[in-house]
Amino acid sequence: MNELIPLMVIVPLMAALIISAFSKFNKATKIFAFVVAICLPLIPILSNYGLHYFGGYAPILDNVTNVVYHPAITYSFTFLQQIFIAMIGLLTFLVIFIYLTKYREVSGPYLFLLFLGTAAVTAMLLTDDIFHMFVFFEILALAQVGIVAASSIDYSYEMALKYMILGSIGSPIMLLGIGFLLALTGSVNITDIVAAVHNGLVDASSPVFLTSLGLIFFGWLYASGLPPFHTIKSGIYSKAEPHGAALLQSFTVISMISIVLIMFRIYSSLPIFEVLIVFFSILAMILGVSLALTQTDFRRMIGFLAVGELGFIGLGIGLGTQYAITAGLFQALNEIIITALLFIGFGAIVDATNEVDTRKLGGLLAYHPKVSLMLLIAGLAMAGVPPLSGFQSKLMLVQASLNCGFPEISILAIMVSIATFVVFVKTFYVMFLRPKPQDLEVEGKDVPRAMIFAMGVLLLLVIVLGIFPDVVVNGISNFVGGIL
Amino acid sequence: MKLYDQIFDVVKQFKKLFSPGPVTNADVSGSITAEIFLIVSLILATVLLRHVSVLLAGLVALILAIVLISNIPLIPKFKIEQEDSLEKMLFYAVVTLSIIVVFMYWGGTLV
Question: What is the chain A residue with the closest CA to B26?
Fold first, then answer.
């Protein structure tokens, strides 16, 4: 059933276009969006692993050099892609479900952007073609800008514009790096490029090859929101609708891992590559958590925490061993789930109070006990408290850095987890436990059931992955063994 | 006594960090945590330089510790630098690109 592989991209892409074209039929649009959203997590689960060659152009064997060339754009579907695409599909379904139940009249362009973003990250995960990856990276950037601009939050336009301006620096620089690679290897197929590098056809110490790494790396920093782009990333999360922010952060995590895995395959022979990743990951962890500690806007606080958590993912990849990369990818999966849960949960609080300043909140435990309990567990999971999923991945990362001979990194990772715990204890106290300020008006309305449902599903995943991490860790480890 | 006054002054300066609006105990304790976390983690990160040279790691950690502690509070300065100003974001993007170029120029010989 390898025909299903391209459908993972085509279905959300076509849905986006159809919804955009027929959005004036409100009820039909709602039903169609709901049905497509249900299909998104099912397609990767039903599909078999394998390769898909667009146009049917199978690889060609050069009998003289005994090298295999890939003329077609190739999609590669393994366990890693399956688990991440299914997770993105599930999250898209939950976000669209929340959106459809929240508004009586839905916006076609907004749904278009949500589906377009999902299609773009799915393609980035699947593709074995670096230029194809870049095209969808650009589409994703535009979808992200649109999702932020379409929200009804103050200054969202301004933040979206800033993100676009910074993107106009990051993206062309990455494209230039890809151009250098093309010039060196004569191919944009990643497997072909990797073969050229490993067979010695490309001099790994040549200035052009090193420059291509520097340029693509800079583009990756923009895509993943690592410093210096951490401020704008946390900014766009805080200016998007909460359910939109939940999806945006997952887009960031997926684009981060898909690009870094490509870079890893091409540049892993250069020690400087791993040094760079570790350097920026540590910087992200330190800056993200320290800035989260000083925030009074809780949406911004989660934004900075999300950036700090990205550092953990980078750390795993940067350490470069099979165990460390597995830990990093498992952390990525956990971050997608936990951060989405936090954004949706805190979004429910914004809905109920119309307030985002923690100094003006308090006593919400009595009004929203279910939401507060789920947020508490999510916060503990992010901080790495056992037996939740965040604990498992962070423990693996600490063990991995110890095994690699970097006890400082282990200590730093534990310190960041403790600081994350402090952020949640502080926020939970001021929002839910301390007496309600007299001037705070808590609207009597209940939290939408769709939000409770979405939080429940995500919470279940956090607990299940915490108790049975092997369900995904073994598969990820096998994938990593294949690329090393 | 001078260091004590300096630390006490830090708490006072946090007021500016949260203006306009009230400053709560939770905010100040969060900021102090951030301050300590920032100093300790940056110094800890420099210890990684021991993989290049133990002497270099010791020297850098010592100098950084003195510089950071004598410049407290760091968080208000950090926060000003990390605000949503496009100029600052662009500036740091250019600085980062320069750092990567430096890494490539000198670090490239590590391959």
Answer: A426
Q: Are A438 and A369 in contact (CB under 8 A)?
A: no
Are the C-beta atoms of A241 and A151 separated by less than 8 Å? yes
What whole-number distance in Å separates Cα of residue A332 and Cα of residue A315?
11
Contact with chain B for residue A404, Cβ under 8 A: no
Q: What is the pLDDT of residue B23?
A: 73
**Alpha helices per DSSP H over A404-469:** 407-428, 449-467
A301-327: pLDDT as tens digits:
999 999 999 999 999 999 999 999 999
Residues of B engaging A, defined by a Cβ cutoff of 8 Å: 17-18, 21-22, 24, 26-27, 29-31, 33-34, 37-38, 40-42, 44-45, 47-48, 75, 78-79, 82-84, 86, 88-90, 92-93, 95-97, 100-101, 103-104, 107-111
Instruction: Kindly provide the ipTM of the predicted complex, given to two decimals.
Output: 0.86
* A307 has a chain B CB within 8 A of its CB: no
Q: With 0.95 as the threshold, say if the pTM is over it.
A: no
Which one of B49, B50, B74, B89 makes the best mutation probe of the A interface by having the most chain A beta carbons within 10 Å?
Answer: B89
Which residue of A214, A289, A359 is in closest CB contact with B100? A214
Q: At what angle do helices A271-293 and A407-428 cross, to 10 degrees?
A: 20
Go through chain A and tell me how many residues it has.
484
A397-419: per-residue pLDDT in tens?
A: 999 999 999 999 999 999 999 99
Nearest chain A CA: its distance from B13 CA (Å): 13
A397 touches chain B (CB under 8 A): no
Alpha helices in B1-111 (DSSP H): 2-17, 25-46, 54-70, 75-81, 86-107
**In terms of Cα–Cα distance, which of A117, A92, A73 is closest to A223?**
A117
Weakest mean pLDDT among A28-32, A178-182, B84-88: B84-88
The pLDDT mean for chain A works out to: 91
